[in-house]
Structure prediction request, 474 residues.
Amino acid sequence: MRNETVFRAIEAARTLILAAERHIWNHPETGYREWKTHAYLKAQIEALGVATHTFDHIPASIAVQSAKDGRDRVFKPIPGFWADFETGRPGPRLAIFGELDALLIPTHPECDRETGAVHACGHNAQCAALLGVAAGLSAPGALDGLSGSIRLIAVPAEEFVERDFRKAMRDDGVIRYGGGKQELLWRGVLDDVDLAFMVHTKDGEARIATNPGSNGFIATKHVFLGKAAHAGAQPHAGVNALYAANLAINAANALRETFQDNLHVRFHPIIASGGSSSNVIPERVVVDSSVRAATLDAAIEVNRKINRAFAGAAAAMGCRLEVHDLNGYAPRRNDAALNDLFHEVAADLFGAGCTRQRTSWSTGCSDMGDVSCVMPATNAYAGGAGGHGHGSDFRIDDPEIACVGSAEMQAEAALRLLSDDAALARKIVAEGKPACMTIAEYLRLADSIDFDGEVVDYAPDGRIVLLPARADRP
Prediction:
């Protein structure tokens, strides 16, 4: 039986929820830049009488544990915030995420004309739904009979874009990780959280859809360094970095038959910088890509092969090669019991036949995967969108489903998890099988993936030495 107090509160906030979806759609910002979205959503939730906390201020109870794991107690400000709803009775803490950031698609007809940003992944609807959940949970009596607590989190930077901007933020000490949820793991915001979910927006008529999980990835950048020369008069005096990059991509393509089908490997390079002028032998060429796979071990192994192929191609042309590997996102393992809960909730609220349980693995990536490494978690999908995700035709077709209906499902799922002395949440926490690790172990693994350095050495005696991209991974 649904909690009528909560549902009446969400229905009463319907106009507020739908207005939030439009406002955030009309003011898109990319990751770690979402200050306007942050201020708007924070003010809307605080207007409900809910206290919020920003990520540069960590409560003492969390900071103490963070310090034990070697993390600083003081962090520089980033967009986003969280709000806690305490039942006053002991039990698990559930985290519910909403993502703040947009994509860069300058061909989208409704993008920001100055920046090219647009919410072509539906995060605007996520934020509106999060506001609806806050409205429901803040109603008087909403938490009666529950145990444990609920933490709503407006998180930045899920889309892994603008890598150079994020690297500059890392170099300046503003952030440590490229993904927002990774950063929250570092900052201690999830130290006292036991399980988590979020509901993404997706095309299709299903009220809710789930899948087993999705790929993780390593972000890669290869910088080929040759020698400039006049392309017409003295090409023999140059070292062509573009040809080296072309050879490298072909060498990587020759590896594809070694990628095992069940590991869902993807490698998709682009030449981000290919030279300065057609009459100059290209001296510096940059290839950006990602290595995606269903396991971190597979991503690391394939990335090692790619780096070796690129180093060999650089050596063949006499180029130097810089390798810049950056930890992307871990593979996401959706908790089956949480998936089942969302199907039950949607069927009870909106009738049989409104759910879709996919059995296929997703080859996209999300920093919800990093959360799933350390606790039972799922990323479900609510309908209501149209067009193609990350495409120039993406839109919210039915905000009632994408925002209001999503808020109702999330609130009901939270209530069922924490009712009856949080019996279901306790069971999921006890039986859930995260990928491996404590947060401290996860952070050490994430850090081990990063690498910056040259990998081709030309010895004075003419020998060419291909150096490993990691000392511990020959």
